[in-house]
């Protein structure tokens, strides 16, 4: 099944298709992870994107039942140098090709992924389309030039109805903007009583549940496309402890008056070093985002910067100076990736415990 990847900028990569024979188009990005392709494929934050894997061999340990980050993949396609047709792992149930066929996804292998990655690094993220080998390249380029990125990605991947994951500990409301299962697992491991709610939840809805804390999840797309979430955050700020991850981090920053911007090619992979400014310690983190918080804009807010990325010095975390609220740009639930940063869930537990023990008149003190 001969296929080719055509970019909006006119470059063409010839290869072999896997999965379904259907065409697929999206934003072409790259991920530097050596493992974790199953978690990546099922991560809702990849909605609308075609992901190029920089590691040359993908699929060698197959697809198993345990490593899904969501029930249905939101990714648009996958680009690999070499796909493994005969995986070897005791947990493997499907090959990557079989999984793609079952989920009606399209991918392409056999192309120069190093050249594609360098192109994205030089020119920035581009739109692309995986098509059959005989497709007219000029026509596809014209089609890609007229496509605009959707603004409803969070709505498409968020849960449509609330559900519970019971526990005997703190009651946490997890706002699902495209949440990974890893966040729920980390909260459950700490015996939290979690209620997962849709992205359109209001501040009033949350406070009626009387939670001990609120978790704002990761999710796809531009944070400025979710203005109602900013209003919700302003409505609960100071009334309940808040912990935000990735998109949740960006939404907290926007709600407090900061600005965000689109990165040239984003951060995606499981090997990104992040410096915690207070302790001067470095954690190797898992990341997946195409937008960042404008550091200069934080100066006019009640937020202080807590973490920075060592690769490009961009913002990776904030904490509110007055209210119990903090967030990070990376993924402390580490699915996939290193577990250096999962202590942040313990900090969230400590924050809820401290907040709950305060007298009402002192609940707005500095929690930094």
TrEMBL record:
The UniProt record lists the keyword Amino-acid biosynthesis: yes
Metabolic or biological pathway, per its Swiss-Prot or TrEMBL entry = Amino-acid biosynthesis; L-arginine biosynthesis; carbamoyl phosphate from bicarbonate: step 1/1; Pyrimidine metabolism; UMP biosynthesis via de novo pathway; (S)-dihydroorotate from bicarbonate: step 1/3
Instruction: List the catalytic activities from the record.
Output: L-glutamine + H2O = L-glutamate + NH4(+); hydrogencarbonate + L-glutamine + 2 ATP + H2O = carbamoyl phosphate + L-glutamate + 2 ADP + phosphate + 2 H(+)
**Residue span(s) of domain Carbamoyl-phosphate synthase small subunit N-terminal:** 1-131
- MF terms (GO), sorted A to Z: ATP binding; carbamoyl-phosphate synthase (glutamine-hydrolyzing) activity; glutaminase activity
Q: What is its EC number?
A: 6.3.5.5
What GO biological process terms does the UniProt entry carry, in alphabetical order? Answer: 'de novo' pyrimidine nucleobase biosynthetic process; 'de novo' UMP biosynthetic process; glutamine metabolic process; L-arginine biosynthetic process
| Pfam families assigned | CPSase_sm_chain, GATase
Q: Does the keyword Ligase apply?
A: yes
Q: Which UniProt keywords apply?
A: Amino-acid biosynthesis, Arginine biosynthesis, ATP-binding, Glutamine amidotransferase, Ligase, Nucleotide-binding, Pyrimidine biosynthesis
Matching PROSITE patterns, A to Z? GATASE_TYPE_1
Signal peptide per UniProt: none
Question: Where do the annotations place L-glutamine binding?
Answer: 45, 219, 221, 247, 250, 288, 290-291
Q: Which residues form a coiled coil?
A: none
Cite the SUPFAM superfamilies for this sequence.
Answer: Carbamoyl phosphate synthetase, small subunit N-terminal domain, Class I glutamine amidotransferase-like
Active site (UniProt)? 246, 331, 333
What residue spans carry the region label CPSase?
A: 1-170
Similarity comment: family membership:
Belongs to the CarA family.
| PANTHER family, alphabetized | CARBAMOYL-PHOSPHATE SYNTHASE SMALL CHAIN, MULTIFUNCTIONAL TRYPTOPHAN BIOSYNTHESIS PROTEIN-RELATED
Q: What does this protein do?
A: Small subunit of the glutamine-dependent carbamoyl phosphate synthetase (CPSase). CPSase catalyzes the formation of carbamoyl phosphate from the ammonia moiety of glutamine, carbonate, and phosphate donated by ATP, constituting the first step of 2 biosynthetic pathways, one leading to arginine and/or urea and the other to pyrimidine nucleotides. The small subunit (glutamine amidotransferase) binds and cleaves glutamine to supply the large subunit with the substrate ammonia.
**How does it associate, per the subunit comment?**
Composed of two chains; the small (or glutamine) chain promotes the hydrolysis of glutamine to ammonia, which is used by the large (or ammonia) chain to synthesize carbamoyl phosphate. Tetramer of heterodimers (alpha,beta)4.
Its recorded name reads: Carbamoyl phosphate synthase small chain
Q: Which organism is it from?
A: Chryseobacterium taklimakanense
């Amino acid at each position: 099944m001969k296929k080719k990847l055509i970019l909006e900028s006119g470059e063409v990569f010839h290869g072999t298709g896997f999965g379904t024979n259907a065409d697929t188009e999206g934003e072409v990005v790259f991920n530097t992870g050596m493992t974790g392709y199953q978690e990546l494929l099922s991560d809702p934050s990849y909605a609308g994107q075609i992901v190029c894997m920089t590691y040359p061999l993908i699929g060698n340990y197959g697809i198993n039942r345990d490593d899904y980050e969501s029930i249905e993949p939101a990714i648009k396609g996958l680009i690999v140098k070499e796909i493994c047709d005969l995986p070897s792992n005791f947990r493997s149930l499907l090959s990557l090709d079989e999984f793609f066929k079952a989920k009606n996804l399209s991918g392409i292998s056999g192309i120069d992924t190093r050249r594609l990655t360098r192109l994205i690094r030089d020119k920035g993220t581009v739109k692309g389309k995986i098509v059959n080998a005989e497709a007219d390249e000029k026509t596809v380029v014209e089609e890609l030039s007229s496509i605009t990125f959707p603004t409803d990605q969070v709505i498409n991947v968020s849960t449509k109805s609330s559900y519970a994951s019971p526990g005997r500990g703190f009651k946490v409301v997890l706002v699902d903007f495209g949440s990974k299962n890893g966040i729920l697992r980390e909260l459950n491991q700490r015996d939290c009583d979690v209620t997962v709610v849709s992205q359109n939840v209001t501040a009033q809805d949350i406070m009626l549940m009387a939670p001990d804390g609120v978790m704002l999840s990761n999710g796809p797309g531009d944070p400025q496309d979710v203005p109602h979430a900013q209003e919700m955050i302003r409505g609960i700020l100071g009334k309940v402890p808040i912990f935000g991850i990735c998109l949740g981090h960006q939404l907290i920053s926007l709600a407090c008056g900061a600005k965000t911007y689109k990165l040239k090619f984003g951060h995606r992979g499981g090997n990104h070093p992040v410096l915690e400014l207070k302790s001067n310690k470095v954690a190797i983190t898992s990341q997946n985002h195409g937008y960042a918080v404008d550091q200069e804009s934080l100066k006019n807010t009640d937020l202080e910067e807590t973490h920075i990325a060592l690769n490009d010095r961009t913002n990776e975390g904030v904490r509110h100076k007055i209210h119990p609220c903090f967030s990070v740009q990376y993924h402390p639930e580490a699915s996939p990736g290193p577990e250096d940063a999962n202590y942040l869930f313990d900090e969230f537990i400590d924050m809820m415990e401290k907040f709950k023990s305060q007298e009402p008149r002192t609940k707005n003190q500095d929690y930094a």
